[in-house]
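User: I want to check something. If I give you two sequences, will you return the structure for each one separately, not as a complex?

Assistant: Yes, each is folded on its own. Here is the first sequence with its structure:
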Amino acid sequence: MTPEAGVAASLEARVWAALAEVNDPEMPVNLVDLGLIYGVEVGEGTVRLRLTFTAMGCPASDMIVSDIRERLLAEPGVGEVVIEVVWDPPWSSARLTRGGRDALRAWGLSV
């Protein structure tokens, strides 16, 4: 692995960790555990990510995008964040991680 590839891999790991700190504003579950992040690409200070929501017309979508951008721009080495909202494949509860399922069950939701 080249030094540049190692730095990019390290930044990508930090980006994923940062995304795991961003909660859905309607429930205390992070976006990674909810399965809302469909992909992350890191290169030369730019983070591109593909994001979906649990439903079209999600009232918290603008807040979530803003929270993601703010958190990632606070990460050293990130100078630009490009967020693409995607709807294909549609989100389903199958995308939840075990931690996401446990958090939703703790809230009394059946998943």
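And separately, the second sequence with its own structure:
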Amino acid sequence: MPLRNPNINYNRGWFFVTTQVAHNKTMFGVIAGEQCRLNELGKMVEQHWSDFFKFHPEFEQDEFVVMPNHFHAIIRAVGGSGKSSDLSGAMRIFKSLAANEYLKLKKSGRCPDIGSKLWLSSYYDNLITSERELLQIRRYIRENPARWDRDRFGPVTTHHIGNLELLREKMVAFVASEGGWGVGATPHPHDRKGIAPGGAAPRNIVPGGASPPPVISTFTSSPEQSVLAKCLAVKRPYVHVMPGGIPEVLPSAWKEACREGRALLLSPVPAGTGVNKQRAIWCNRYVLDHAGEIWHGYIRPGGTLETLLGSKE
């Protein structure tokens, strides 16, 4: 990141600042419904920014937003109170407080471990020099969550193979993180029909019976892949949402399921694109938004699936 500009007085004026999470990791939440749904760490970051101004009257708070992997804010340095209003000092305090929260949550297993540092070492700043520029940046910050997906991804149904009519049916979603089944598959509070959990997750989520509704998932994690294998074994309809593109060469069981109308493969990107973290979140949102019931296995604390499920409550 750039060093501070020696020609700018950072003790007075309006500044637009941006600081990025280390390794560009998604740490603070997910975008859903054109809003950033903050997780526990994201809420702490938001609170620390607001609390900062209670103890530092030499600065004034303006528009800000906590995004999944970065932070935008407008801050005004006004001086006074006998304290230094240097912008670098303010950002150092804020980033340090947020980083301490990350280390606490990481130690207790309540957020992903991305290493010893939460932030990249510096931050971006821009001196705001006119009222017009101030209004433009305020609007940019407010609209940042709404642009997040619109600027990145096309419709999940852009590429497809199989039976599109499955999308007309009431579907059952299954999502799970890597790391085990926990206590088994569990119906989420968003479910429109409660089903008592019990037993191993693949058996719960893929029961027998006539004309079962399709299961929809990205089938990315090991538990999700187990559910896909069970769907194929009992010939249950399923919708496979694929963040990295539909493979050019499909496994024979997939081809048979598509040919018989029991499967639909969807992806927003062409074959061979590869998996992208933000696109995977986009596809998991599609899965949850298009399900009448939501079941889940083990959900990693502080992860994106936990935040997405929370947005459904």
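Because they were folded independently, the notes below concern the second chain alone. DSSP finds eight helices and 13 strands in the chain. The chain has two domains: 13-150, 159-310.
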